[in-house]
Amino acid sequence: MGGGYEEAAERVVAAFADVDDADRPFALPEFGAGRTFPARRAIGFHFLDHVVHGWDVAHTLGLPYDPGPDVLDIALPIARSVPDDGSRSAPGSPFAPGLVTPEDAAPLTRLLAVLGRSAHAAC
Predict the structure, then answer these.
(1) Partner residues linked to 27 by β-bridges
(2) Alpha carbon 10 to chain centroid distance?
């Protein structure tokens, strides 16, 4: 792989390390042209990406995935802060509209449902 992941991870860590104002606007074009979010939320979204894409990979490979309750306790409120509006139905949207799931569902199931994914969908 030539170190692509490591280099990308280092760039992200360096970019976020330079944030000196948690309210500084970050442009996140995946949510729509010109859409910005406070730095603290943009960093949280990046964390959320890692958690959810970890599930994507494990699910695709048929492997178990358990990031642990501490990670899920942090990730779920971040997922709930992702706008669940008409932009989720637009072509190329990074998220499908949120799914309804029982509040007593497993934390990972709830996290995925908020982002429009079913933990029980076929690979």
Answers:
(1) 36
(2) 19
Q: Which residues of the chain have pLDDT under 70?
A: 1-3, 122-123
Q: Judging by beta carbons within 10 Å of its beta carbon (0-12, 13-18, 19+), is residue 109 exposed, middle or buried?
A: middle
User: What are 88-117's pLDDT values in tens digits?
Assistant: 888 888 889 999 999 899 999 999 999 999
Task: Report the candidate in 89, 8, 84, 3 with the shortest Cα–Cα distance to residue 53.
Answer: 8
Collapsed DSSP state (helix, strand, coil) of residue 36: strand
- Who contacts 78 (Cβ-Cβ below 8 Å, separation ≥6)? 41, 44, 45, 47, 48
Distance of CA 100 to the CA centre of its chain: 18
Token duo for residue 79: 């997922």
Please report the pLDDT score of residue 103 as a whole number.
82
46 C-beta neighbours (distance < 10 Å), count: 15
Residue type, 55: W
- CB contact at 8 A, 19 and 43: yes
Give yes or no for a contact between 32 and 47, defined as CB atoms under 8 angstroms apart.
Answer: no
